[in-house]
Amino acid sequence: MSLNIPFKGLLSIIVRNHFIFMNRELKHLNLTEGQVPYLMALSKKPGITQDDLAGMFYIDKGTIARSIQKLEDKELVQRVQDPVNRRRYKLSLTEKGEGIIPEILHAEKNGRIPSSRIFQVKKDLY
To answer: Which one of 21, 34, 44, 48 has the minimum C-beta count within 10 Å?
Structure first.
């Protein structure tokens, strides 16, 4: 059976299904898959700014600001004024934010498709 799905289409299907899976897995944490990259970045690089995140993910500053505000409201992220430049804020995870990182990583691990299955899907499609 050959469906002749272009690579971009196949990639879109995989990403969409991953988002659905992660949203379901993280529902009890009141998180969405869209918030996870920010939390993971802050766990790896505490003290970065919203501008740093915007550049890292190629997302406009307004979108980052709204997302960080939601994470701050959930007490997962904190902003601390930069003593050198008082207009900038350094971001870091709160203790609560640090505490959910292992759960996110566990959900990610559970959502992985074994490579043998990926190759089978590819074989079925082409």
So the answer is: 44
d(CA 80, CA 1): 56
Give the residue ranges of DSSP H helices in 4-114: 7-25, 36-44, 50-57, 61-73, 95-110
In this prediction, residue 95 carries a pLDDT of 97
Per-residue model confidence as pLDDT tens digits over 70-126 = 999 999 999 999 888 888 899 999 999 999 999 888 888 877 655 444 444 444 444
| Residue among 1, 8, 34, 2 nearest 20 (CA) | 34
Q: State the Cα–Cα distance between residues 101 and 106, nearest whole angstrom.
A: 9
CA dihedral (20, 22, 23, 28) in degrees, to 10, reads: 150
DSSP-assigned beta bridge partners for residue 77: 93
Q: How far apart are CA 78 and CA 89, in angstroms?
A: 9
Q: How far apart are CA 34 and CA 39, in angstroms?
A: 10
In the numeric block, the tokens 């272009």 are attached to 6
